[in-house]
């Protein structure tokens, strides 16, 4: 078994798919080590294990809307693609989504997965409470405001296995998607926050070529006014893929055609392969105020990035208080790289991390990065407290794997 990209071959002794909560409790009780996995879209060993892995997708589906809160209670192993059309049909929406609906809710929340939008937090901030199974098989509910909540929501699969979430919802809304072509990176640097605030959700795609430009993907909510031009750049009159050489069929509708939130906020449609497939991704979170300087640093090695890259995406994420979130207490600019699959990217990833370390970049937990535990401790200031919380919940580290033990410096037991 491999991850979605095929760059990680899983070492599982067994892959278990419990069909009920009781079965999940049983497998947790019986196994000395067990690692939970979602849809395996991570680009590193985060979801790997040399012991037993468990996946929740076969457990009975749960979608319970509570209009009073308003919230929806869901099975953690479901994908956004399974959930979103159902709540939309009932008149409700999630505030934001990632670029693809194929990923599991739990895997996304546990890694701090995000969409874009100057006022939008990452997807983990949609969680109101989580129901978990502890290492001894007992059940626990953790709600916003509880001491355990901020530590455990972006939890990297540690401490407990989440089987159910309660998520915030709002009334359903429409989005119109418009692309503004050929905005220069210099212009983006000059007016970063204002350009990235042009719509509810904004992504800037660039390939770092010496043309020095990129396309701005804007997702406007129903009442937002769509400008004729942004930073002097005009609206595209043809549908596009983020990677110009790829057929845009797989992309959600553009050209201002209104559609429900779940068919516009992701760039890619559920029924198609997202992105390009033959790829590895990495992504770095920096303070939004440093975005222009970070782009200047990357310009210095643009000629090295360009040949190894399919495309780069720059987004924004609002600050939060979730301990291992990439946007912990920092309004964030996210600089993402979709790399061509090649060993040559790894030295370049290290080089990029060297250039960005003065900006205290945080890596995306689910993407390829080389940062070591000493560095991670500096930029995620709550890591030591997180470890205490995890060891309190799971003293034998039943839910850990080599990757988390290495990156978080848990000592092997
Ligand atoms: C094509 C593509 C596009 C992407 N686009 C984006 C994007 O727009 N924004 C972004 O931020 N990321 C993006 N990602 C990265 C992706 O969101 C993360 O890798 C995410 O973790 C995927 O969820 P998953 O279910 O596949 O996680 P997995 O890889 O299966 O697992 C990830 C982590 O979640 C934990 N986990 C899984 N289930 C549970 C559970 N029930 N309880 C506790 N922990 C659990 C696992 O233990 C593991 O630590 C993209 C990835 C791909 C392949």
Give a quick precis of the structure:
With 413 residues, this protein is an alpha+beta fold.
Topology at a glance:
Layout: E1 14-16, H1 21-30, E2 34-36, E3 52-54, E4 63-66, E5 71-75, H2 80-89, E6 92-93, H3 105-111, E7 127-133, E8 139-143, H4 149-152, E9 161-168, E10 170-171, E11 174-184, H5 185-190, H6 192-196, E12 201-206, E13 213-221, E14 229-230, E15 233-234, E16 259-260, E17 279-287, H7 291-299, H8 302-305, E18 309-317, E19 332-340, H9 345-356, E20 362-363, H10 373-379, H11 383-393, H12 402-408
Parallel strand pairs: 1-3, 2-3
Antiparallel strand pairs: 4-5, 5-9, 6-10, 7-8, 7-9, 11-13, 11-16, 12-13, 12-18, 14-15, 17-19, 17-20, 18-19
Flavin-adenine dinucleotide is lined by residues 4, 35-42, 46-47, 56, 76-77, 98-100, 103-104, 106-108, 110-111, 113-114, 155-157, 161-162, 274-275, 364, 366.
């Amino acid at each position: 078994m491999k991850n979605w990209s095929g760059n990680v071959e899983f070492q599982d002794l067994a892959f278990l798919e419990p069909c009920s909560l009781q079965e999940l409790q049983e497998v947790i009780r019986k196994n000395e080590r067990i690692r939970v996995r979602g849809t395996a879209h991570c680009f590193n060993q985060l979801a790997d294990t040399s012991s037993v892995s468990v996946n929740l997708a076969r457990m009975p589906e749960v979608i319970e809307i509570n209009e009073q809160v308003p919230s929806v209670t869901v099975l953690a192993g479901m994908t956004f693609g399974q959930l979103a059309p159902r709540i939309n049909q009932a008149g409700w929406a999630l505030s934001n989504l990632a670029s693809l609906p194929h990923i599991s809710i739990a895997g996304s929340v546990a890694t701090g997965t995000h969409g874009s939008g100057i006022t939008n937090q990452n997807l983990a901030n949609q969680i109101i409470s989580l129901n978990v199974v502890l290492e001894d098989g007992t059940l626990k509910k953790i709600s916003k405001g509880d001491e355990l909540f901020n530590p455990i929501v972006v939890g990297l699969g540690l401490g407990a296995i989440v089987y159910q979430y309660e998520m915030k919802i709002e009334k359903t809304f429409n989005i119109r998607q418009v692309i503004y072509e050929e905005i220069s990176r210099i212009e983006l640097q000059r007016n970063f926050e204002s350009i990235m605030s042009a719509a509810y959700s904004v992504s800037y795609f660039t390939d770092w070529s010496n043309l020095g430009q990129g396309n701005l993907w804007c997702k406007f909510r129903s009442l937002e006014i769509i400008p004729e031009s942004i930073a002097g750049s005009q609206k595209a009159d043809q549908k596009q893929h983020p990677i110009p050489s790829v057929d845009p069929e797989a992309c959600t509708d553009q050209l201002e055609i209104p559609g429900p939130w779940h068919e516009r906020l992701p760039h890619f449609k559920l029924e198609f392969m997202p992105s390009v497939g033959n790829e590895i991704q990495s992504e770095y979170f920096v303070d939004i105020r440093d975005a222009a300087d970070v782009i200047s640093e990357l310009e210095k090695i643009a000629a090295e990035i360009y040949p190894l890259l399919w495309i780069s995406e720059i987004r924004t994420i609002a600050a939060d208080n979730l301990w291992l979130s990439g946007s912990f207490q920092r309004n964030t600019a996210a600089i993402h790289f979709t790399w061509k699959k090649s060993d040559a990217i790894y030295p370049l990833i290290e080089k990029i991390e060297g250039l960005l370390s003065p900006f205290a970049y945080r890596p995306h937990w689910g993407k390829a990065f080389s940062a070591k535990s000493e560095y991670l401790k500096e930029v995620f200031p709550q890591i030591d407290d997180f470890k205490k919380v995890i060891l309190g919940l799971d003293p034998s580290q039943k839910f850990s794997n080599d990757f988390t033990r290495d990156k978080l410096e848990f000592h092997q037991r």
